[in-house]
Write the structure tokens for this entry.
Amino acid sequence: MRVETMSRARFEGASTSVDTRQTTLPEKLLTTGQLATLTGLSQSYFEKGRIYGYGPNFVRLRPESRSGAIRYRPEDVRRWLHERECSPEGAGDE
């Protein structure tokens, strides 16, 4: 039971929105799994995003190979999140 509660707490914590102004990203390269945990999105979302062009810029550590390790620069992740920032609906319509 305790493990289930801890897992649920981790899951619920991962689904919260990310405010990049208050969240400190590590300055090292991020794996797809780390990025998924940080944003609360799935690894699959970012894997598909690389193919279809909707994810953040990434680094392929072996550019000659399509199967090389993928990493994300924290500054690219910040920029990508900032580009998707939205104002509340109807803000400024007064």
Remarks:
- Confidence is low (pLDDT under 50) at residues 1-16.
- Helices lie at 2-14, 32-39, 43-52, 74-83.
